Amino acid sequence: MGFVSSGFVVAVVVLLSSSVLCNGGITSSFVRKVEKTIDMPFHSDVFSVPPGYNAPQQVHITQGDHEGKAMIVSWVTMEEPGSSTVSYWSENSKHKNKAMGNFNTYKYYNYTSGYIHHCTLRNLKFDTKYFYEVGIGQTPRTFWFVTPPAVGPDVPYTFGLIGDLGQTYDSNSTLTHYEHNPIVGKAVLYVGDLSYADNHPNHDNVKWDTWGRFVERSTAYQPWIWTTGNHEIDYAPEIGESVPFKPFTHRYRTPHKASNSSDPFWYSIKRASAYVIVLSSYSAYGMYTPQYQWLYEELPKVNRSETPWLIVLVHSPWYNSYKYHYMEGESMRVMYEPWFVQYKVDIVFAGHVHAYERSERVSNIAYNIVNGICRPVSDQSAPVYITIGDGGNIEGLATIMTEPQPEYSAFREASFGHAVLDIKNRTHAYYAWHRNQDGDSVKGDALWIFNRYWHQIDDSTTSRSG
């Protein structure tokens, strides 16, 4: 405990020594050079098509069940369907298993997709390295992944956090920094907005293909847990496209049925000592909607003796002190925040705002027509809210902040970057945010986070005034 406390104090001292204090928490003194954010050109190496006839490309994996013993493998073939079979085997094993998948295609305006394959590998062993092969019979490609350890209360595990990535030079810097981080992430919690294809004329779906090839160097080797953002909606009736989320639903799978969800955009998974709930900011979430009813039934199922860490992913942040997308998440906050406090959610990660911000533990649930109280207050049963929509997309940084900094805002900075959440046991997790401009091991914001169920002590990082 002494080690944890001293580490926590050091982290806070580092933050205070390099930042400017204001009414709320800390507005970083680091000023990123303002420059135009542009997509990498089509001929960039990161977009290279793998050699060979009908070679699989855009390979990505995600968890395929509730507990981590299945993996969904997805890829695209361009010339013809080819095989949807995946061959896989554990390290040091000579026996190869085979799983049969299927494929689909879609049209979007004047674009026709390649053949998009999905195959679920089941009954995997925990904490085991597996190799897998796709493209059987034509141009096979081999990748690998490591399954998580069995679910348990003191099982350590490290998540990466990325959001609003896109495919610019800054996006490449973000992904490279994540890959080189000495705190090695084993799975990515992705908080929405993937390719930004809809920022191009007619929602140019070729950008979905280039993005898939760009991130393959990570997504083929560790699962990315998907959250949908506004740039996945792709609703464009002016060009005849009136089905929301069309490209995303064809290209990306989630294990929503394993948690009794009726929709792939909201679901839950267990992974090591964490229970991760994914919500959709852009699907109906009001009272009596399917998402509302699912979350109402889901939260009581979380057994904190089995999975102490309760993490929620959304796209639109509930606490945001930037002028971009200000209060866009307010109606969802009003609906669900009382539940998050009741069930002691540890952390809520969001994207959407293209910058970084971390809140103190606050809630704003005291208002009613009698007392009229309507402002965030310190609440040690509330989550820490972290906005990490700073992946580096084409829309650029959110640089205009509200002043003075509100009391609920603990740290904010307009920079691109990524974060890691290193869960140690049922009581402690180490969190660190890394900006792209620094060396791989440099932390722009870091703190120890104490579990709300097992170790509910004050882990705020700024003193409050008034």
From TrEMBL:
Highest taxon of the lineage: Eukaryota
Reactions this protein catalyses: a phosphate monoester + H2O = an alcohol + phosphate
CDD domains for the chain: MPP_PAPs
Pfam families: Metallophos (PF00149), Metallophos_C (PF14008), Pur_ac_phosph_N (PF16656)
Domain Calcineurin-like phosphoesterase: 158-356
Record domain Purple acid phosphatase N-terminal: where: 56-147
Enzyme class at the top of the EC tree: hydrolase
SUPFAM superfamilies linked: Metallo-dependent phosphatases (SSF56300), Purple acid phosphatase, N-terminal domain (SSF49363)
Keyword Iron: yes
Cofactor(s) the record lists: Zn(2+); Fe cation; Mn(2+); Cu(2+)
PANTHER family for the chain: ACID PHOSPHATASE RELATED, PURPLE ACID PHOSPHATASE 10
Protein name: Purple acid phosphatase
